[in-house]
Specification:
The complex is a heterodimer. Chain A is of the alpha/beta class. Chain A is built from 13 helices and 12 strands. In chain A, helix 4 packs parallel to helix 7. Chain A is globular, with a radius of gyration of 21 Å. Chain B contains 10 helices and 10 strands. Chain B has a 6-stranded mixed β-sheet, sandwiched between helices. The chains are: A alpha/beta, B alpha/beta.
Amino acid sequence: MTAGPLLQVRDLAVDFSTSQGEVQAVSGVSFDVRAGECLAVVGESGSGKTQVLMACLGLLASNGTTRGSVQFAGRELIGANERLLNTVRGTGIGLLSQDPLSSLTPHLRIETLLTEGLLDRGLASRDEAHERALRALAEVEIPEPQARLRQYPHELSGGMRQRVALAAALMCGPQLLFADEPTTALDVSVQARVLKLLAGVRDRGVGVLIITHDLGVVAGLADRVAVMYSGRIVETATTDELFSAPRHPYTAALLAAVPRLHGVAQSRLVGIPGDPPQPSARSPGCAFAPRCDRAVERCGDSRPELTPSAGVNPCMTAQGDSIAARAVPLAAVACHRPLQDRAEIA
Amino acid sequence: MSTRLPLLQVERVSVRYALRGAGLLAPARTLDALSDVSIAIRAGGRLGVVGESGSGKSTLARVVLGLVRAQAGRVVWEGGTVNYDDATAMRSLRRELQVVFQDPFGSLDPRMTAGQVVGEALQALAGPVASVAAQDRIRAALAEVGLASAFANRYPHEMSGGQCQRVAIARAIVARPRLLVCDEAVSALDVSVQAQIVNLLHELSERYQMSLLFISHNLAVVRHLCDDVAVLCQGRVVEQGSRDAIFNHPREAYTQALLAAVPDPDPVLQRARIASARNALKAGR
């Protein structure tokens, strides 16, 4: 493997044809994920974050269409045949979903759930697969792995199920892990444990793409963050930059809205007025403009492009003309009047 | 009020659920959902009840509302024991005791407009109201939760989750209850909308001296909204006290562990926390 990114997503767009016409769920989304790094895609419900994952894996609902480019380890996944996608799913990219009960087939034993990927692909003999399942359960800190292998999902607690689902996602040794809201359905104590395990997975060199709406989860785990609003990335930055100096007004408002356990417990939280727009009723301008306290007339008329933040070293350079080779900036914001704008301070 | 009598007291309540046995001939098992639980809320007070799934939080809300019967203990409303079997007494209590549930779509009838939802509650709780006056009160209740009067004609599927939750709150407050039970009322909402609803509940509670029994697994929300906190663990109250006491000086190990597990939106703090958890694990091996 070269030092290039494991996953390169360029200009990804997802449309759904519905009874109300064509709906754009995602547009113009570009990002990279490298080995051993964690990228968090943050957004509220309906922002399109889950559809990005599903589009990458070719798992969109039947009325969905994808445009753009998704390259995994140099292979194009958009428009790829099912055979290639089936090799990538599981062996190349593991998927951990939000609800552990519905992602584990209820009538199969834990051993079957863990080993079927290896056995179906002929990657291991039955004995090897059994040994690897035991090791995988131990790695996610499941006590008495031998006994657990004979149990069914409903016999485990929610937290244990999610750890088994993580073990299953890692069984075929993927280079990349997609985690879709992996801790949302869990209690805080269990959540902390799953986060610690995910940090361990990343430190072993697996690229992790985590989808979440919880900024607390992002803070501990992610190296970089992409904030999505209404189907587009509105800001991307390193985790430290994003939390200490958010540039998009939406990012800043989102950070201010989170209730915290430390600092002054003010009785009023800073909410964002209004609701996110329906995809079918977006304005031609910035989708956040109707809720934004910095919006001016221009914001409602023309959509701001994602532009690299000043002072950021564009460490990746474009090679060739294909969209797959186009570089993405490591820090960028899509806003006509971003916060910490140099011109504004001067 | 002349005396400092609490508005609501739950006294030594225990609830035991019967579970089906594991096999055909296996003996039936029981689950102690609540054991000897006591809480009190003063008029205008906001009590947060926190705990993990299965700790008995929702059962406690259901006991107060009369949806689950306690095997032991009693619920006291303004000094008098509540008799949940007395239909007349319950009708007047319902006017003063209302509830908002977690799922904003699930708790509204999909075939009723927001105005009908609020109007039905008004008729049921306040008795027959002249239709002009009723329309005014429905509009006022919707305005109070920040919904323009045009929302009165909307159906649940035409509204966002936050807007539906506002309708559920309007329905609950239209007859001016003195206690609002919120069972994970903001848990299903996005953070930006969650903050709006937390602020709304705080405002309504201040304006009308309305008490809140706020059930939540989200400790940070409870810290911002409530003045008192009870921590439930496996059906027992393990610690109870003022907000500052619980969050700044938790005495019980369980409370400390619960607080330590909450992910903080601060990268430096949160990374240090995950690292120390992993080091502790390595040292333990």
